[in-house]
Amino acid sequence: MNPINQLHFAVSDHIDGNEVSPSFVPLALLGEFQEDVSNFLKGSNRDINLAEVIVSIEQGSLAFLAAGLLTASTLWNDLERLQTSNSLASIDPKRAKVIERWQTFAKKNAHRRYFVTNKSAQFSFSVDANSNFHSSENVWIQVEKYLHGKVIDIGGKIIANVHLELEEGTTLKIAATQEQLAQGEQNRLYRPALLHVMAEENLLTGQLRNHRLLDFVDYQPSYNETTFNQMVARGTQAWADVTDATDWLQTLRGYQA
To answer: What does the alpha-carbon distance between residue 235 and residue 218 come to, in Å, rounded to a whole number?
Structure first.
């Protein structure tokens, strides 16, 4: 058989001290893996007729060798994308869900690992506890932010939190501890506040979620016109010999004309 016409799917794991193999595999894992392989091959476009795909079960880990895939153009295109990127946004959504499912299982079980390879070594990728496949629209990272607004509710008998109304009118519920809220003697309710928080930020949309209070920041902004004018005067004197502010700034940054 033409090796470009084949894909090798395998899952390795240890169950009760035994390595998963064709002669030792939980029925649930066998059914789940068979369904995942079927969904991965079909994708959303169903450009593969599973009735025409020949599968052999190989020795070693639980492994399927699927043949009859030569005309599945979207399948091969998706596999090629997976060679160069951890992003699942550009591949078929049904195949992306299979990989996300495998990654979820693998992160819960350090022994679990999935392999998809082509015998000609043209395509190969694996999913394990260290994998970082993700959908671009769903990438959340930990960030620290400073949020300014008015505290409209604070406390909680069992679950402590702060309700902060931002200047544009949005209200955020920020998780806290009772110890954090008990610190200091200042009454913060219905007063402006600057909060230092930890949150998760969506890389694509900038949306924040799961806010958690780190600290209340001592923030008492004020404007003194005399002090401001003094600073302006000092700056004007210090840069009096700068004739072109744009050219001066570009020179500092190392830009060459």
So the answer is: 28
